[in-house]
């Protein structure tokens, strides 16, 4: 189901995957990396910093992390699908400045509880810029997987939305959604176990 040739993307996509997620029938992180030329999937629970997770030197100031959860009420009334947040979890005043000059973005791959574990075990994520998704449409998984809310997308859908708005170019959306559609067409509903419900690509980051 892989593409003959990965599509060129400028913004590097680094996916941190919880070890339990790779067992899921509908896991899409590997397919995302196969479809993109500049992407990497690393499996584990913690890394000392961004550079170690990435496998090469990287400046955290030029990276963002996909943030999902407590910021959602602040997004009511906006039609933007990709929004940069300030440190208070509110939409940043200068969106263009916050989204400009990014070298890469980190996605957390796993169930809500697994992604939450990844967040708390990697405090260096707090040094990255924060991006939140506000998708106009629900996940393409439909009835194959229950989603707790509209913005709960699969990893491949989240990567598609990010690259679509931060890079432009229809070829990225076409390639990634084509990969997803092939995955869904080859996955009978009977194979999807009930434990795959409530999955997403970042934890709800409310402090208890």
Question: Which labels suit this protein?
Answer:
208 residues, alpha/beta, seven-stranded mixed beta sheet, 6 helices, 26% helix, 16% strand, globular, disordered C terminus
Would you write up a description of this structure?
- By secondary structure, the protein is α/β, with parallel strands linked by helices.
- The protein has six helices and seven strands, in the order βαβαββαβαβααβ.
- The chain has helices spanning 29-35, 50-54, 95-99, 112-121, 155-166, 170-185, and strands spanning 12-17, 39-43, 63-66, 82-85, 104-111, 129-133, 199-200.
- The model is unreliable at 190-199 and 202-208 (pLDDT under 50).
User: Which word captures the global form?
Assistant: globular
Q: Measured on Cα atoms, how large is the radius of gyration? A: 16 Å
Mean pLDDT, to the nearest integer, reads 78
Query: Would you report the number of β strands?
Result: 7
Proportion of residues in extended strands: 15-25%
Spell out the helices and strands N to C. Answer: EHEHEEHEHEHHE
Instruction: Please estimate the helix content.
Output: 25-40%
Distance between the termini: 42 Å
Q: Give the count of structural domains.
A: 1
The secondary-structure class comes to: alpha/beta
Largest sheet: 7 strands, mixed
The number of helices is: 6
